[in-house]
């Protein structure tokens, strides 16, 4: 049997109609992935399967500085205790070899160390020698050359231990990232039009009065890319130029500054529109480096912005004002932004069609004028309502006319 033909023509069937409908580009939801740099500046990176652990022992001082405080304090305490116990055993052996610990000896011989008769007294003498306390109850004599050699050795080793441990404690308390705690970044980054160009902007500031010398800001875009050969690069770092790139990215961080990156053809954000940016998995890393004015130590502050933290069509509000001859900074508005007219297309499309920017600015100007007109009309209506209400109140307070009748019955109007 031949298949029955449909009554509806094929060109008007549902599949044909659906195929002819123009489809809009569909953007997949962005898959949440781990940040490479946290907002606090910490690197979200774990080192695993390191086989050559001995490399860390080749630089013991750096290893001690990198340890956490609890491990450093435990090592600090155990080092001194072990050294005191080790030399206490040495002094006890010297006294035992010389016969100072024998209470029944017949020949009276001067002791190597006076009043060292047990291991406890030897331990106390070891502490006195290494810490240079010297209570005076125990002291070395010239009877034992070995005791003199142990005294010199313990002093040298004690000085080395003190230098290493105190240097480690000092470096941990004066680490450069402590100064970076007062270098702040805006919570969000913004993309808006500045000088007729689409720009990516952030705000940085320093809470201390002591300045950061030779401060420099670097921006990097980190994203997962695939080369034409098929090689997958999970962390591809792309340098991003800022407005001060000609001067080596040096900034004068006296007051909070807005760091601006012009999205041009060399920018990794050049082909991204507002919708495509929200669906991408890129991360913008900001690195602020400089020399601390008070200590001369180089410090570095870091942060990052994922696509959810980039506000398209916003601008930072001004926070620096002049009050009584002094420039004042209001840090309560440090991260505040306002909406501004910004095309939703990419910078590439904006360069190909400059009329988009002109139309957007004209629309914003018209909307601004309309809002001003509405505001003025509302003010006029409110003023008219207030005037009418005042007139009504005055009329209510006015004295009414009273009609008097004369004896003849003729009306006489009088106003009191």
From TrEMBL:
Catalytic activity, as annotated: K(+)(in) = K(+)(out)
GO term, biological process aspect, one: regulation of monoatomic ion transmembrane transport
Domain annotation Inward rectifier potassium channel C-terminal: ranges: 183-353
InterPro entries listed in its UniProt record: Ig_E-set, IRK_C, K_chnl_inward-rec_Kir, K_chnl_inward-rec_Kir6.1, K_chnl_inward-rec_Kir_cyto, Kir_TM
Annotated site location: Role in the control of polyamine-mediated channel gating and in the blocking by intracellular magnesium: 162
Intracellular or extracellular location(s): Membrane
Any one Gene Ontology cellular component term annotated for this protein: monoatomic ion channel complex
This protein's UniProt keywords: Ion channel, Ion transport, Membrane, Phosphoprotein, Potassium, Potassium transport, Transmembrane, Transmembrane helix, Transport, Voltage-gated channel
Domain Potassium channel inwardly rectifying transmembrane: 37-175
Topology class, membrane: Multi-pass membrane protein
Gene Ontology MF terms in the entry: ATP-activated inward rectifier potassium channel activity
Region of interest (Disordered), ranges: 367-390
SUPFAM superfamilies with a match to the protein in the record: E set domains, Voltage-gated potassium channels
Ranges annotated as biased composition (Low complexity): 379-390
Protein origin, superkingdom: Eukaryota
Transmembrane segments: 71-94, 146-170
Family: Belongs to the inward rectifier-type potassium channel (TC 1.A.2.1) family.
Protein name, UniProt field: ATP-sensitive inward rectifier potassium channel 8
Species the sequence originates in: Danionella cerebrum
Lineage of producing organism: Eukaryota, Metazoa, Chordata, Craniata, Vertebrata
